[in-house]
User: What shape does this take?
Amino acid sequence: MKAETISRYVTRNPEILNGEPIIIGTRTSVRAIVGLWRLGIMPKEIINHLTHLTLAQVFDALSFYLDHQAEINKYIEKNQVPDELVNTLQSWIDEDDTEEQQETGECLIHALDEDRLSERKLFPTELKGLTW
Assistant: This one.
């Protein structure tokens, strides 16, 4: 199946993020841009965070979002990090217990790899010790 262009800068490609709307020529999702915007970051500042994008691409993504809020909000909700993982990470940072930090790290790696839209693992076991 090939990519479907849905606005000037937004497309869907079933091979990238399972067809979630992205900016053409990138893997940057509309969801990611909306997430920054919801944090109060102005479009002119978003391009400082996502330096590979143009201001026109950011505005098009936000326009797409405003026309498709229910769909993008579902992607946002689906990709939220659960509170228990955030709390676990914070306790891991606050504690100085090496054993607990290792257990927490393994739990986070497992959770991040299990809940991905992509089949590709963030932390492949064959790269342990080489890249992470």
